[in-house]
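Troubleshooting: if your tokenizer reports a length mismatch, compare your output against this known-good record of 196 residues.
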Amino acid sequence: MVIWKRKVYRVVIGSIFPGVYLITGSIFWPLLLVSFFLTLVLAMEYERWSHPQVWSYLLNRFSVFKKASQSLTGDTFFILACFFLVLFFPAEIAIAGLLFLTYGDAASALIGTYWGSTAIFPGKSLEGFLGSLAINTVLAGLIMGVLPVAPITLVSGALVASVVESLPLKMDDNLSVGLISSVIMGGIEFLQQLRS
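Known-good structure output:
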């Protein structure tokens, strides 16, 4: 499996939901699309567990899939996170969380794999963390120009997403990065509204 192919695939899929959210300005279409993809990955999980030969075929045929462990695949956790972000968070927070999850993860994995030399945790490098932080900070700056979100909210979300991506948590980072950073951003936005 080639990591860059998997990350390009993830960036393409992960860009659909915030892109549609930005274009339509409505929760309906992104929620419909993420529900469709969630149905697909859950069907794949069912097939993987009921008919292992189907998963073996997919692994051999498509290099974007990773060898699955005894739990859900990273793709399933990723789409679950996207579903929860679109369903439970305000549009601005959901879009930021989706972008941090998609691009921060890709930057961390690619930079950490190809140039990571300073280990901070098993399988996590300082270079991967800094790559994630750089991409997420750039995204925060771009989002500030498009959506009505306080800069402190976005910068905090970018930092939290990068830190969570780099921590050796028991929860899959495909699920934790977007959700934890969005909870933090939502809390900061709530506190900002209380102060106003």
